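FIELD: query
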Amino acid sequence: MSDLTYYAIGDVHGELAKLDELLRFIREDAVRRKVTHRVVFLGDLIDRGPDSRSVIERVMAMCESGEAIAVKGNHEELMLHACANTESIGVYWWAENGGDETILSYVRVNGYADDFRDAIDKAHIAWLRALPVMIRDEERGLVFVHGGIDPQTFPNCSDELRMWTRSQKFFRSERWPEREELRDVIVVHGHTPTADFEPELERRRINVDTGACFGGPLTAVVLAPGEKPRFLRAA
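FIELD: result
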């Protein structure tokens, strides 16, 4: 995978129009530079925005064609828990965190009778459940994950931490311990929207959640072999 140019996209959150525009920019960029590319989705495809079902359809098709890979975010985990369990707390927690908009995006297409779960495509649930929580290109030192890592225990962090962490131990990457497992590692993540809608670029950590569902752009970091990271945005 070392010759690939990666385009890692932050939290989409149901913003289909921004996603389609960003994908157009990515494909144009890859053609112009004559590179073999792969799109990496960093999780939280769903919730809050208006078109979560269509976003999943789009990303599933890209992954099946080989153009993209994806990791699971905490919002996918919330959805999976709400769909698999009937207790009200999990459903309420998902609904309060953007799940209502996701359910509506499915109901508009599929309708439902008594249970919202009947509106959600079974193939989508199966695909989301099978997503990994971390993808690595070890040759290039790239770690793609939704939330982050624990620099004390990487690569043996829990799945929950990889999807949910906002620990200062992770964010202060200049203070990570000197461990062989972290040598030349760059963690590419989303999950924590930046206050100024700009991506964060550090030597060992790149955050591309620029608040697409809060009025910010949808951002991708371009990771080409031997080049400095750069960014593409769709407003």
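FIELD: remark
The domain at 5-74+133-234 is CATH 3.60.21.10 (Purple Acid Phosphatase; chain A, domain 2).
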